[in-house]
Design brief:
The protein is an alpha/beta fold and about 575 residues long. The chain contains 26 helices and eleven strands. It starts with 14 loop residues before the first helix and ends with a helix.
């Protein structure tokens, strides 16, 4: 807050009153400052100084609407009062009225064309509206009038980063750091920009510089953990997440990431404990907060009613459902499983006598009234914490889901009609066409040389890709019009269950295949999902599963060489 002289003569408080007011404001005694301002305004309602200090005091107390009135009063008294427009812009920004905030900054700039703070703050408001080009232009204007304006360089870096222009972001952060060598936020954000460029070693170095300046900079430890994970330095990443948690124990994100790495390392007991923290983040909250039931914590379930709530994707629901028999074995009165409606019939058939509840109903008003009496609730992803604390806890059952027998027979008849030979289902795209997990069909050529019948299990519309494969390699993937893996999952699982083998990237298809006990070979990227652990060639979740891993990023060729050899052996064995 700065006072601005005016040619208009108003009645002002006496010098000693002004001094007392300014001293109170500068000492941070906001309540006393506010009371004195209001007292003085009764005698001097047209005092710009008092109105402006009142606005600033109200802002510091987060009384933004009242502050707005004070600044509007100041502007009414002096329409060319640039600082009042600026302060009003700050207040509107705090109220998240960003366009009005920009308008107020524009008025301040019109009155004072070199108002660098107004340019900088206008940039921040543009950023909130996702107008990053407008933000960058504003920061450039601020820097034009103040070449050592390190905050503007930093803010410009953030805007470049949001646009994915990471090299420009790094340059802007470097300029901020050059002007202020202890600018820890700039070091941290520069690390994020280096990460965006794929320059992970430089990112780690930048995070470490931020940590050196502030050993308690929890976000830097967290970000560094992510980058170390990208570098494949799992143990170092675990240490970095652990440091973040030590500084801020309720920081859920590093707990979540730590859980996945511990599980990846095979430390199931500690991994599932940390996994629970991941459900506390807004992004990953899998608990059913709307339900009033007590969360189950291994109490006796004999004669009790328990609700198992859904979390994450359909593949996760399938994998975690393997723990449901352990719940049933505790002799509860009833088990209600909230799930994706597409697998409701499948679960009820496989885990009698459970009842299912459509997870989409959770969004309906008063949905809980239809559930009935419940003693406990637990999310399905929390069950492994109790039943999968070590690989020795996994049941040795070949399968745990039961396909529809009539649908299964339909598919066996169809496959038999193709003639003799192995019937092999393939899927080559990860969820949402994840580039890390997806493999172009052209790279499967070695596998297609095997004398087997290949069946298309890929969900989504990839008909053009399949047709191109037929033109390029004369490979025919068998497909049927009455298959819709995204909708009719019971039919899809029956189709899978009738196959001799499934070869697939990491997607929900491998969960379906493993759950019904079909041999399934999974092609994993160099940095696999936590559930597959780091070095195993098998999966405790699915006894019929075999894992093939990249030895380094983007190298699928070695995997296909190994798989084609194995497939040829299997074909010969089948024919003998």
């Amino acid at each position: 807050m700065h006072n601005q002289s005016s040619k208009t003569k108003f009645v002002h408080p006496k010098k000693e009153q002004v001094k007392k007011l300014v001293d109170l404001y500068q000492s941070g005694q906001t309540s006393k400052t506010e009371r004195l301002c209001k007292k003085l305004l009764k005698s001097f309602p047209k005092s710009l100084l008092v109105n402006n200090i009142l606005g600033a005091t109200l802002v510091s107390q987060k009384k933004y609407k009242n502050a707005l009135q004070a600044y509007n009063k100041a502007i009414q008294l002096k329409p060319d009062y640039a600082e009042a427009y600026f302060n009003r812009g700050v207040t509107l920004q705090a109220l998240e009225e960003f366009q009005k905030s920009i308008n107020s900054y524009n008025q301040a700039i019109k009155l004072r064309p070199d108002y660098m703070q107004a340019f900088n703050n206008r940039g921040l408001a543009f950023q909130e509206l996702k107008n990053f080009d407008g933000a960058i232009d504003s920061y450039n204007q601020a820097i034009k009038f103040k070449s050592d304006y390190f905050e503007a360089y930093y803010n410009r870096g953030v805007a470049f980063q949001a646009l994915g222009e990471f090299d420009k972001a790094v340059n802007s952060y470097n300029q901020a750091i050059k002007l202020r060598s202890d600018y820890v936020q700039a070091f941290n954000n520069r690390g994020l920009a280096f990460q965006g460029l794929g320059e992970f070693d430089k990112a780690v170095n930048s995070y470490n510089q931020a940590i050196k300046l502030n050993p308690n900079y929890v976000e830097a430890y967290y970000n560094c953990g992510i980058t170390l994970e990208d570098l494949g330095k799992i143990n170092d990443s675990i240490k970095s997440y652990a440091k973040a948690i030590k500084i801020k124990h309720d920081y859920a994100e590093p707990h979540w990431n730590l859980s996945l790495l511990l599980l990846l390392n095979g430390d199931l007991k500690n991994g599932w404990e940390e996994y629970e923290y991941g459900k506390l983040t807004e992004k990953k909250d899998r608990r059913l907060a709307k339900a009033p039931y007590k969360i189950w914590n291994s109490e006796s379930l004999k004669g009790k009613d328990i609700l198992i709530t859904a979390e994450q994707g359909i593949g996760d629901e399938i994998m975690f459902s393997s723990c449901i028999p352990e719940i049933i074995n505790q002799n509860p009165n009833s088990v209600i499983v909230e799930c994706d409606s597409r697998i409701a019939t499948l679960l009820e058939r496989s885990f009698k006598p459970i009842k299912t509840l459509n997870r989409k109903d959770r969004d309906k008003e008063n949905w809980i009234k239809n559930i009935g009496n419940i003693d406990f609730q637990i999310s399905i992803g929390s069950l492994p914490k109790f039943f999968r604390q070590s690989t020795g806890n996994f049941p040795l059952k070949k399968s745990f889901l039961l396909p529809n027998q009539s649908l299964q027979k339909k598919w066996k008849d169809r496959y038999n009609a193709l003639g003799s030979g192995l019937k092999v289902g393939i899927s080559w795209r990860g969820g949402n066409n994840d580039k890390l997990r997806s493999i172009n069909l052209n790279l499967w050529k070695d596998i297609f040389q095997s004398k087997a019948h290949f069946i298309n299990l890929q969900y989504g519309d990839y008909s053009q890709e399949v047709e191109q494969l037929k033109l390029d390699q004369s490979v025919h993937l068998h497909n049927w019009d009455d298959v819709n893996p995204l909708i009719e999952i019971d039919n899809f699982i029956a189709q899978i269950s009738a196959l001799d083998l499934v070869i697939s990237v990491d997607n929900s298809t491998v969960h379906f295949a493993g759950a019904v006990g079909v041999p399934v070979w999974v092609l994993l990227p160099a940095s696999p999902n936590y559930r597959w652990m780091q070095t195993r060639k098998d999966s405790p979740w699915y006894p019929t599963m075999k894992l093939y891993r990249q030895n380094h990023h983007d190298n699928w060729n070695d995997i296909f060489i190994d798989i084609s050899k194995e497939l040829n052996k299997l074909v010969k064995l089948h024919c003998s």
